[in-house]
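User: Could you write out the 3D structure of this protein bound to beta-D-mannopyranose? I've included everything you need below.
Assistant: Certainly. Input first, then the structure.
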Amino acid sequence: MSEIKMIGSDLPGMPWQDKPSGCCTPAWRYSENPIISRNPLPNVARIFNSAVMPYEDGYIGVFRGEQRDGVPHIYLGRSSDGIKWSFEPEKIPFVNSKGDSFMPPYAYDPRLVKIDDTYYIMWCQDAYGPTIGIAETKDFKTFTRLENPYLPYNRNAVLFPRKINGRFVMLSRPCDNGHTAFGDIFISESKDMEFWGHHRHVMGKSKSWWESLKIGGGAAPIETDKGWLIFYHGVVNTCNGYVYSIGAAILDLDEPSKVLHRCSDYILTPEEWYEERGFVPNVCFPCATLTDSSTGRIAIYYGCADSYVSIAFTTVEEIWDYILAHDVLGENDADEGLR
Ligand code: BMA
C-alpha cells in the first residue's frame, strides 16, 4: 500500500468496521445500515443527505429532514457514537445579523465544516431559484445566516476545512431550476466569507458512464500530504431515471482547481435495498466524512434513496491506491480552469 497521511486530528472512537474478507470494492458498508430510518421525528418523514462532525465528547450533525408537507429543512442532531442519533424536534432556527428570525423557505443537502473556531453550515435554498445558503455558529445554539455566496442557480456547496493561500475556498455546482441534466464542479474563493470570486472550473462529467450526466461536490475535502481527497457524486441518466454513485478524486493542495488524480470507476453505487428502494430510488449521496489520522480510517456518511442515512468505510491508503489504479484525467481536469 502507498504511504499517504491524512492531516488532521485523531478520532480513535469513530464508527469503524474492518473490511470484510472477500470484499473486492474500495469502500464497504456498515453492517447495520441504514443508521437512520423513516419517521425519525413526529414532523419528519425522512432524514437523508446529512453531514456530521466530532463535537465535544461525541458528534454533532446537520440533517436534511423532509417534513410531512414534503418541504425539506435542516435539523440538528447529536450522537455519542456517530451511529445512534437524537434530533432536536424543531428545525434549526436561523437568525440574521441582528438576531431576528431569518428562515429560508426550504433548505436541503446541508454540509457542515469547521474552520478555526467557527462552524459553517451550507445548504441549497430558494432565492428566486435554488442557490446556496450559509450560516455560522460557534455554539450550535445561535445560527447566524451570512450573505448567500452565489446567484441562482447553484447546489452542492462545500467549504474546504481551512483557508488556502489566506482565503476561504468553496466547491459548488452551478445548475438550473429543475432536475438539472448537466453540471460540473467549480471552485470559488473569498477573503471575508461575504464576497466570492476567483471562480474556476475543477472537474466535469466524464467518459465513465456512471458520471456521464453530471457531478457535484459531496463531503468536505480531506487534507492529505499528497493533495485534497474528495468524495463527490456522479450521475448517469438511464431509461428509468437518474442513478447517483459516489466517486473519488485528488485535488492539488495549493491550487485545488487542478485535479491530480481521478478515479474512472465509482467507489460505491446503489446495490443494497436501502439505496435502490425509497422515495427516489438508486441514490448514494455523500455529504460528510469522519476521519482518524493515526489509523487512516474514513467513515463516509451518505444519503440513500432520499430516504435514509448510511455509513461506508475505507482507509486513506485503500482509496488512494484505488484512485491511482484507475486514474483517468479528463481533458481539462489538470488545468487551473478557464476564465
Ligand atoms: C439532487 C438533489 C439531492 C437528491 C438527488 C436525488 O438533485 O436534490 O438532494 O438526493 O437529487 O433525488
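The longest strand covers residues 44-55.
User: Perfect, thank you.
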